[in-house]
Amino acid sequence: MIYVLKKIKVVFVKVRYSRLYLIFRNNYFLLAISVTLFLLLLNSILYLPLLCIYLFYIYKKEKSIFVASLIIIGIIFTYFLYLENKPRYLHNEITGEVISVKKKESHQELIVKKKRNKVLIYNNLNKNIYPGMIIYCFGENIIPDENHIEYDFNYQKYLWRNHINGIIKSESIEIVGRKLSINIIPIIFTNYFELNFNGLTLTFLKALLLGDSSSLDEVFYDSLICNGTIHLFAISGLHISLFVGIIYYFLKKFNLKEKCCDAIIIGFLCVYLIITSFSPSILRASLMYIFRKINQKLNLNLSSLDIISIIFVFLILINPYYMYNLGFVLSFLVAFVIILSQTIVNGSNIKQMFLISVFAQIATIPISININNEINILSPLTNLVFIILMETIILPFSLLVSVFPLLQTFYYYIVLSYSSLSIFLSKYFTVILKFRDFNHFMIMIYYGLIILFLQNYHKTNLRKTILLLFFGYIFCIYNCHLFTFHGEVNFLDLYNGEAILITEPFGKSNILIDTGDGTNNAVTNYLKNKGIRSLDLLIITHNHRDHNGELESLVRHFHINKIVVSAYYNSDLTKLDNVITVKEGNIIECGNIRFSVLHPDKEYKDENDNSIVLYTKIGGLKYLFMGDATKNIELKFSDLNVDIIKVAHHGSSTSTSDAFIKSIKPRYAIIQCGRIEKFGFPHQDVINILEKNNVIIYRTDKHYSIKIKYYKKERIFKTLR
Do residue 130 and residue 209 come from a single domain? Predict the structure, then answer.
């Protein structure tokens, strides 16, 4: 054994001082950049020239690194193709091991593993299921939803990128066996906290120690996003450093040797990874600590940049889908910024923390914008305050109260103060800038300008020019609506209800007709993603929830110049200062668009017949927006010349008679059906009438959201599906 160990040591020494080892040392970041560019290429062909130029650069710089880059890229690409082409699980039954359990208000979400398949099971059968159980489940196989609205959350891709390739809505579950599983550990800790704590105390402890922020109050959660401090509730390097520091401090009190301390801490990190279900940010922070210890003990002479680059490449090799995990991306990006900043940031700890916070915010702006479409430029200052509070008070007390639950009353007032301060600052200490989503081209230019600035930092005149270009670029993105040459009419595919967004070229006007029922704030999020900060006109056709349900959210998040309702709209809404009422014969003007109000002429018993019916010309086409008007009143408009009709009442048989369609002769019909199956929209009779009259039909249940782009005399119909 001693002989073998000596041989291993000799080999290790030879490797460590070999030419190849010396070449890669301090150059592992070049591999990380290669991998990053390739991952970006997998999402947009725009990055192909950049990757080719970069590979040519490292080929000229050092062929060994070039070869290593190609090998790693080849492995990642092969594995990625395998993951992308893995078959879906389409059976309605499965027998497998439960590896994860999440409790919701009305059901459980189980993840069951069977060989290479992971299946999500919705369980509302009131059975206590735990990880490690072998279950047989029978039910309905469900195809996960795609995004029905541009920029919307794609649940299908989300599940796939978390390696879940099937969904079953359970009808029966049988427990057929049990086995020991490490996945039970998170449940044990969660149950411990839920048994001993409650209210705000429980919410904070679960978020800060278990990484479960699902219970955070909505107002408080919004304040964290606004202040830019949400990262403090995603367990990361800050938490790991503090936990390790506390453990190390107490271990040294017992005069334990360094090796023993390191072994205990590494053991703690391994257990903590299991408790937090291997959260990417914790995985990154834990591996950084472990690799630093290995580097120190073996005298590998690797820099912090080397270590984080090796860990990044290693994790991507294990799971290329990490590139879609925002926690993973932000964790590594901020860690890189911190490491690079340490070489140029001098001064007191507070000054360093502030400058690093500024650099981190600049580096993560495109990602932050694509998450929430806004940034608070004062967040580096609030970050400084909350990081200090988190490090010195909140986290230490969180650990203390988790061990001594009797202290929770005192802890409650601490976290209540923290929560109140966060909400207060989010209201009165913010300068919010709202942006549209960054696309790949915009991201390339953004980071390209940053790299140019850093490369030319010591060239004063050039540095100033690049900085001026950078702020000019940010200004252009902020006002990108002013540079939009085309207009759009967007018919959104909502879960329930209708919403139509009309935008004119060059930001002349933004008009919204109806809001849908407010499910998931879909319209609010859509407007934010498009970079819309205000609405010139909001028209509510009638007082039904599927047409006005998101009004409150829109009023809260956007400046709305005018809200238009019917003269017979029965609601307190009509008392607001910016609300105007209309009836038949009125004209509504906004930008270059002029709406003729064709209805209502009086108050009807059927609220659908109180719908505002609008007629207008947009981009050379004549539109008729019918609201939910029924057959009883539609023949009033039979003398109109119509190109596009927004079919009334989601395609219900109560509207759209054959005589009406024959009289107006539309070329196109748009049907916003919603996705509630029990309503059965659109009705087949309506489809038959439209087809018989040679009308081209676009319907949201088949085409998802529908967009009509216009520029001068050119019109393009686009659908999301």
Answer: no
